[in-house]
User: Fold DNA helicase-2/ATP-dependent DNA helicase PcrA from Shouchella xiaoxiensis.
Amino acid sequence: MGENKQIEQKRVDEVREQIAGEISKLEQETSKRKDEVVHIRKYFWDEVKINTDTFDDYLETILGLRQEAQALAVSQSSHRQASKRLATLKRMERSPYFGRIDLREEGADRTEQIYIGIAALMDESGEDFLVYDWRAPVSSVYYDYQPGAVSYETPGGTVNGVLEKKMQFLIEGGHLQSLFDTSLTIGDEILQQVLGKGSNKQMQSIVATIQQEQNEVIRHERSRLLVVHGAAGSGKTSAALQRIAYLLYRNRHQLNADQIILFSPNTMFNRYVANVLPELGEETMQQVTFQAYLNRRLGQSFDLEEPYDQLEYLLTAARTSDYAARVAAIEYKASIPFFDAVNAYRQSLEHTGMVFSDLLFRGNVLISRHELDERFYGTDVSLGFHNRLEKLLEWLIKEVKQRIKAEYTQPWVEEEMQLLSEEKYRKAHRYLAKKRGFKRADTADYEMEDDALARLLVHQKVKPLLKEIRAYSFIHINAIYKQLFQGEEQLKRWTNKPLPSNWEAICAATVAMIDSDRLAYEDATPYLYLQELIQGFQVNRAIKQIVVDEAQDYSPFQFEFLKQLFPATKMTVLGDFNQAIFSHAQETSDFHSLTSLYGPDKTKLIPITRSYRSTKPIIELTRRLVPNGDQIIPFERDGAIPTLTRVKTKRERHTQMAAQINRLKERGFSSIAVICQSAAESRNAHEALSEQLELKLIATSSTEYEQGTVVIPSYLAKGMEFDAVILYDTAVYQDESVRRLFYTACTRAMHELHLFSLGDDSRFLQRAIRDGVLIITKP
Ligand SMILES: Nc1ncnc2c1ncn2[C@@H]1O[C@H](COP(=O)(O)OP(=O)(O)OP(=O)(O)O)[C@@H](O)[C@H]1O
Assistant:
């Protein structure tokens, strides 16, 4: 062992001793806290005296309850904090830190050695840091600079200095495996080592090897909207998760994990990234998919189309005129001109166009939609749309209560009274007695009058109706939405922008879908938006940060929607237009249009161009698949050159493919994906390959992130990565509309990529073939 290594190992040992001491103290404390919590839970009801005889007794009981509940909350929170710290320390015991910088600050008389790890650690005196948290202001020097002049920002201002030395450590199980003085070595050995490893079951934190451009993403705080546009494998998801950990640390007194939402592409992806924050000692944020939100809001009213079903249709349906209309509809309904049209339409509803539903009671019209219409449009426009609706609602409730009185003497009431069960009768009796002021012990003295019982029965029946009225069920949103689709002349009242040429066909298809209680994915957001504009937005002010990953798959319309839904939030948006798989984004190549969301002053765009996931030979191929691929810079990691196998029959393909998979397995690759274009192709591939080897099929409904050998549709593989990727058939990627899907599929490979073509090669491979970055094999 070199002298340096010995010295550093000694320090590692000393720091570990300090960690062990803190662990043992904390273990005692957590067990004490746990006992406290258990005790409070167990004896909760013994500690409070329940007495509700007089008002004072009642008040005292409430106060007692509240005190106990508070004590429980405090103990639970301390226990949670202590457990979290304990878990972090246990991780640090295995690997206390990963970096060191020797920094001489301007004006200081000595150079300080600063060690950086996943969390801070003080020495015994509590005065000096043995380890700095990677998110501390000074730690940014480690990520941003090579030795030389440096500066970093602190809450108190900019600090300048000289970085004299920078070291990286790889410590495992308390042993210093390797150390690198980055001023002496070229390249990034540790990053090489990390990236060279086989893929783990789940995404890992990248804290030890964050790159400068990623660090900017992680630490940027000023803007309301941060937009990160980065190549496939450039670490956008990783940086986003590190950023969440950073924001939680920086704002630890104002922000907690519940106030952050990560919008992810699917549930399987949620599982894939679930470990990163806990690994860093932070609680994990809320994770949702946009679809889950739509389902929650609209799922009861409609059979809602899933985004992947929309895609599957686009990939597999015959190219008819219906198909062209659908593609045009998807693009238009995602656009800002349509968003503006919906807003203008809603404005116009102030004067005309609202559609109401008849209010029925026991199948009969109690208040007709014409009455509602007259009433609404009879109120003064200057009151404002929502006030007028509010007034209508108040009138309605009053009117229903009034009109319902006519029911008291109807024969159905008499009939129901006769048929009332014993128990229901007793309940009604008890209720009315109480209402008449009878004490509990004296209720038997109350003689129930028939007409009181009749009123009670009618009121019980009308209750659900009143509840529905309060939820605005009398507004016929379906009909109002459909009015947008009554032909070109109609829509032109609300927009002066060009409409798709097949607008009439789009109108017919949209109305037909809604009439059969189905809602296409492209209609879901506009429909919900219109509903919110009419009924009042159900906003969420509690959320302070939202992070949208794979943002190229969200329409401008959806972003406007998110902005209104979360009025108090800052937004981080990460994506790559080369991977835009939904057809509304086919024409777009960057996020500049998002600048209008909050305005240029509140928006920051950060591009990341370096790609880390794949070996250099793989990136040399994938960057030749997209028009602007020359801007993608590969990280220098060597590996096998991708192959292209041309086969003549399906049988030949499956035999060759199975042999390739077996070879990869023998070489120790544990995650291998056969990527197909669609779910339909995946099912066929799975069936054929299963005859030769064991492999799993991943479908849209899958929630687990599977290890091993899998067959997966291209659009589901996005965001994920595999040791080796086998592309099932390049021949199906000919149309420009699937170029990005092809790129997405190929960029999932970390170490090896093998392509197969049955018949023609994909035309997008021409350049790669010409440039010789592919080995072509013919069986
Ligand atoms: N600084 C880094 N240190 C170590 N590993 C890194 C770093 N940056 C990225 N990686 C690794 O590169 C791979 C790709 O990262 P990630 O999935 O975050 O990229 P992405 O930009 O979201 O990719 P895509 O858009 O293709 O889904 C991951 O395995 C990640 O761990």
Q: What stands out?
A: The longest strand covers residues 157-172.
